[in-house]
């Protein structure tokens, strides 16, 4: 995915979904999301800071075998509610875009 605006729009949803499954630290989130599309560390940390400030996450430190303690993010009940709302909005959005693509495809095939 090359479109930066699309990535920014969906990043909060992805982060919430991953942290709901299990607590993560920042770099771990970057690596998990990068399996699906390219993101930079610089895009995750400001998002995590904002989401923590909005009380979507709590944080705690855990000792690391490789370096300093890591800050882990744990989803709150407010974060779960936000995730559920974003998932509903995402499904509606994807369905609407698919309808537009299907209509465009129908129009294009009738021209042949």
UniProtKB/TrEMBL annotation:
What protein am I looking at?
A: PadR family transcriptional regulator
Q: Which organism is it from?
A: Lysinibacillus zambalensis
InterPro entries found in the cross-reference section: Metal_resp_DNA-bind_regulator, Tscrpt_reg_PadR_N, WH-like_DNA-bd_sf, WH_DNA-bd_sf
Give all residue intervals belonging to the Transcription regulator PadR N-terminal domain.
15-85
Protein origin, superkingdom: Bacteria
The record's listing under SUPFAM superfamilies reads: Winged helix' DNA-binding domain (SSF46785)
